[in-house]
Amino acid sequence: MTQPDVRNDPPDFDVVVVGAGPAGSAAALTAARGGLRVCLLERGPFPGSKNMYGGVVYPRVLDALLPQWWERMPVQRWVTRRATMLATETQALTVDYRTEAWSRPPYNGATAYRAELDPWLAQQAVDAGAILVTGTTAVGLLRDGRGRVHGVRTDRPDSTLTAPLIIACDGVNSFLAKEAGLYPSFSADNITLGAKEVLGLPKEEIDKRFGVTGREGVDIEMLGVTGGIPGGGFLYTNLDSISIGVVVSVTALARAKVRPEELIARVKRHPALAGYLRGARLLEYSAHAIPEGGYDAMPGLVTDGMLVAGDAAAMCLAAGIWLEGVNFALAAGAAAGDTAVEAIRAGDTSRMGLAGYHRRLEGGFVLPDHRKLRRAPHLLLSGRMQEVYPRLACDLVENMFTVTNPTPKKGLGRLVRQGVGERGLRWRDLARDSLTALRTFG
Amino acid sequence: MNCIVLLKLVALQPSIDPLTGVALRDPHGGLSAADRCALELAVQTGDEVLALTAGPAAAERVLREALAGGAARAVRIELPSAASSLQVARVLAAQVAGPALVWAGDHSLDRGSGSVPAYVAGLLGWAQALGLVAVTAGDPLRVQRRLDAGRRERLAVTAPAVLSVEAGVITPRRPTVRALLQAQRAEIAVVHTSPPVPEPGRSVPFRPRARVLPGPDPGLSARDRLVTLSGALREHQPPRVVHADPEQAADELLTFLRARGVPR
Amino acid sequence: MTGWGIAVVPVRAGALPLGADETVAESGGVALLVGSGTIEAAERLGPRAGQVEVWEAGDYRPGAWAARLAAQLAGYDTVLLPASPDGRDLAPRLALMLDRPLYAPAMTVTPGQVTVIRGSGLRLEEHTRTGPCVATLQPGVRGAEAVNTAVPIPVALHPVTPPSAIPDALFVDLLAADPTTVDLADARVILTAGAGLGSAECVDLAVRVATGLHASFGATRVVTDAGWAPVSRQIGTTGVVVSPAVYLAFGVSGAVQHLSGLGRPDTVIAVNTDESCPMMAMANLALVSDARALLQVLAERLGVAAPPGGGVGP
Ligand SMILES: Cc1cc2nc3c(=O)[nH]c(=O)nc-3n(C[C@H](O)[C@H](O)[C@H](O)COP(=O)(O)OP(=O)(O)OC[C@H]3O[C@@H](n4cnc5c(N)ncnc54)[C@H](O)[C@@H]3O)c2cc1C
Ligand SMILES: Cc1cc2nc3c(=O)[nH]c(=O)nc-3n(C[C@H](O)[C@H](O)[C@H](O)COP(=O)(O)OP(=O)(O)OC[C@H]3O[C@@H](n4cnc5c(N)ncnc54)[C@H](O)[C@@H]3O)c2cc1C
Ligand SMILES: Nc1ncnc2c1ncn2[C@@H]1O[C@H](COP(=O)(O)O)[C@@H](O)[C@H]1O
């Protein structure tokens, strides 16, 4: 039983934001711009230090927040070619799309290093007046006599920070959201593991192998490369390195007793990819948990004196070929910051006073997207999607393109029927999956 | 006691381009563990600790860390990072007014010569005790200095003196959040200098130098000495580089060792 | 005295510092030994030194020695000291007294050029010399010709009194090397843990694997600094100097200060995720693999996976 912490001193800040990831920095930026006294707390020695990976970010959400962001943001390459690959151990069927439109402002996606992106974002908040405190972990919530959150305890000697509003942006598995009781039922099934290697390769070599020039980059997502463990693979080009990795179900991984590095090694050996990677040098390896999106796994977002944003609120979409989280985190962070300004000005940070947060998330893309794609993880991680469909598609195309003289060619319809039959696939399942897909993505 | 601590902003994970030998930029430098220990000792042995750094504006970060850690004042001397160790020592020594204990780290991660503290002692004409692995407070200070081949030297040091310490000599305390916040707002004095920047050396990746090997036993016959020198009759295996997962690596390693009689 | 170069070798109770022989060889055999027990030290150095002066000057005093030595050394273009703890300590003081640039620690020193080691051994810097200098030579990088110590060499002894006006720290006493490291110095097989192991637990695992292989356990300075292994286990310039036949390096980058304590092992096995680091470059078998996972597998294969006396529970 923790003693309620009753102090009559004025609070140290208007808002304490915990975690200087994309969500936290966006929250601190908007709150500071609104004139609030903001403290941004980060446990690493600098923002992004614990979030090492190069992924693809979709920064259009910054248009309003940081106009012309593309002129200043530390970007590796602009994604102008995006491919989706369905694969079996020996086959690959790729849909490869490229457009010039994505290589000009306002762009679409960009590859970036978190160790560069996060410090830059945090600096925007600092420039707006927020105070960044690094090397400091929030270890608990302070509550007043009525049980309302009004500060955090940190791991520094006898150091507490008080504020009428806490914004928890402490990432996946949020300790603060759990302590606030916002996760009614938390289970490992809602967590995916992302594991990634960064491989060094000279820029000219990357340009040549992927058919790009200048700052153009490539994003390849794969299904069927994770050896039967539900999940997907990804490959992104940075300026002079390649990020390659997998996103897989933690429980299935544990059951299969496979180490994530081995899975990556398998992806790297895939004949459709090996050629891209020849001679590349391992620069770093990292693994990190990802909240496996899904609207249904989201915790409560608001309590008295506290808001939750970003991965801490499971606002991340990680399902096979999808990997989006930074954009959701930025938008949710900004919504939290705006709500903070409104609530502090009105002098009401109770659940009621913070109701604007939900409204903002509903009005933007964060909650609508998650609701719309709520079935996507389940669909994409199902056994049929993982193993059967990639094989079916590959075999179909292989049969179509294999010249079988002197036997005459089979018609497409016959090939499909044959494939479905051989896989023991029931038409009913196929129809149901198509319908789910249509409802989800249509 | 009047205490001064010398702190340097360094890349904490120095890395180089293996082809060109150019040091890669690490934008997130900080204090080395040794400098952190020097700060803690200065705070524990002194009353009004002055923290000094010579370097570009980014180096103010380490002074804020010092202020949070208990230093009372901080001064940055503007100096390009290419300045020589002697130039660094000169501008640092110029800030020392009156007898004091000057604490420093044993060596900086990027330069690694440990000469700045010795220069400062020489310029001030003070005693030095460098590369310390143990410090016991008191007057005189009782300290242990690391020598080669595992030996130690025990010294008694009285002020004024320059002391440099290795990482691990003490466990620095963590500043409170309040101290961190105060340090963020504190004023940092800047002293301007513009020394001529020395000609930089040409940077190349580390390559070992050809080593002189001891000759064969002079008691051997001329033929045997020749054979030993040429290595003609020794069994040679070309070096192998193997990329392997842990299981395969264990196979490789144990097979390789067994062929050489290990474990016996 | 005048000439191209001279080696200045600080001596304690007759013991030569690490790298003394190489320093003397690099300066063409001209040497000045200073300290206590210098004659005995000169005999140990053997006739590689063509021209040896010994200064019996008592306990180590960098400030006073530098003041006293400067005039004697002014005629030499190059004043070279070993980059041993005492050499590193004395060299800047000498450079100040002589008003010369200092190159430290150097890999090579010639009349025209000096190559110094930077970034804890990751890179080198080549400098063209423009005049006289003081330099320290990194022990172990050069090697030295064998000498027959049975042949006596002529030495010129000068008892000297260092000037007392110059303050130095007061010498109390010398502590001998930790006796528990003796096994390391004589070991035929050594397994060394480097920073790549990442945690105290993994270093403990390495100790057990070493036991399983009947090898002695060593560590790099990063590991001993972190407190994951006792300082007595540190191999290198400022640790123990070893000469194993078989050397296994797990997560060790191979910085010069480490390699210079290593002797010349016949067989080197290195495990590292970075294929191009110096330790891998000198290995007979270079395994590009995660050292932590490999140690776990090795521990299981060797039957040492559980800590000794390891029961259940905390
Ligand atoms: C391998 C992998 C690949 C991915 N690829 C992509 C991609 O390509 N595109 C994309 O959009 N998304 C991707 N994501 C998802 C994306 O990383 C997250 O959704 C996003 O980072 C969420 O931002 P956030 O600010 O909520 O949390 P985080 O980025 O996790 O930030 C949380 C911050 O809080 C700090 N913190 C945590 N606890 C505390 C505490 N108690 N006290 C103080 N500080 C604390 C952390 O150090 C961290 O800085 C990927 C994730 C992984 C793991
Ligand atoms: C004056 C002076 C004296 C010194 N004396 C000594 C001395 O006596 N002895 C000594 O050892 N050092 C000494 N040093 C320090 C020396 O310069 C180096 O800093 C030190 O030897 C580096 O130790 P390391 O190889 O363990 O660490 P690092 O240089 O940090 O190397 C770690 C290595 O582990 C690898 N790695 C990382 N993760 C993994 C993984 N999962 N699996 C496999 N490999 C991995 C990395 O690629 C890297 O190569 C001295 C330095 C100075 C300046
Ligand atoms: N530019 C600098 N500013 C302040 N202190 C320094 C600077 N350079 C070196 N030092 C101090 O001298 C120690 C040894 O550094 P070095 O001589 O460069 O190996 C460091 O650990 C610092 O304490």
Strand content of chain B: 15-25%
Query: Roughly how many Å apart are the termini of chain A?
Result: 50 Å
Head-to-tail CA distance between termini of chain B: 59 Å
Task: Kindly report the average pLDDT value of chain A.
Answer: 89
Spatial strand arrangement across the major sheet of chain B: 7-6-5-8-4-1-2-3-9
Protein described:
The complex is a heterotrimer of chains A (442), B (264) and C (314). By secondary structure, chain A is an alpha+beta fold. In chain A, 34% of the residues lie in helices and 26% in strands. Chain A contains 14 helices and 20 strands. In chain A, helix 1 links the parallel strand 1 (15-18) and strand 2 (38-41). In chain A, helix 1 packs parallel to helix 8 (326-346) and helix 8 (326-346) packs antiparallel against helix 9 (356-363). Chain A starts with 14 loop residues before the first strand and ends with a helix. Mean pLDDT of chain A is 89; it is low at 1-5. Chain B is α/β, with parallel strands linked by helices and 264 residues long. Chain B contains seven helices and eleven strands. The longest helix of chain B has 14 residues, at 246-259. The N and C termini of chain B lie far apart (59 Å). Chain C contains ten helices and 15 strands. In chain C, the strands form two sheets. In chain C, strands 7-6-5-8-4-1-2-3-9 form a nine-stranded mixed sheet, sandwiched between helices. In chain C, helix 3 (62-73) crosses helix 4 (85-98) and helix 6 (200-212) crosses helix 10 (291-301). The radius of gyration of chain C is 22 Å and the shape is elongated. Chain C is α/β, with parallel strands linked by helices and 314 residues long. The interface between B and C is large, with 92 and 104 residues. Strand 10 (202-205) of chain B pairs antiparallel with strand 7 of chain C, so a sheet runs across the interface. Adenosine monophosphate is lined by residues 6-8, 34-35, 38, 52-55, 85, 88, 92, 104-105, 107-108, 111-117 of chain B.
What's the gist of this structure?
Chain B has 264 residues and is α/β, with parallel strands linked by helices. Chain B is built from seven helices and eleven strands.
